[in-house]
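Is it possible to get an amino acid sequence alongside its tokenized fold?
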Amino acid sequence: MKIVFRTNLGSYDAKRLGLDHMKCGIGKTIDVNAETAAELTKRGVAVSEEDAEKDRLIQSARGVPDSEIDGATSVKAIGKKPEVTAPAKA
């Protein structure tokens, strides 16, 4: 089963699961057995490959602009005129 990591998996946890920690970084896809996939998805460390396309954290790590992610909203700031003030004389 292919999963995509939502966060970096540490070397200790990767070794315990029989994985290469260099391949277990945020946004990376790896093929694992069903038991390992279930544990990682239950802990929130990874999601299935199908769900990765909807995950904003993974898409951000992959460099996808917010405008291309479903449900993204844009925020506009209110422009202010710059002011310059002098210190008060005592």
The longest helix spans residues 34-43. The mean pLDDT is 85.
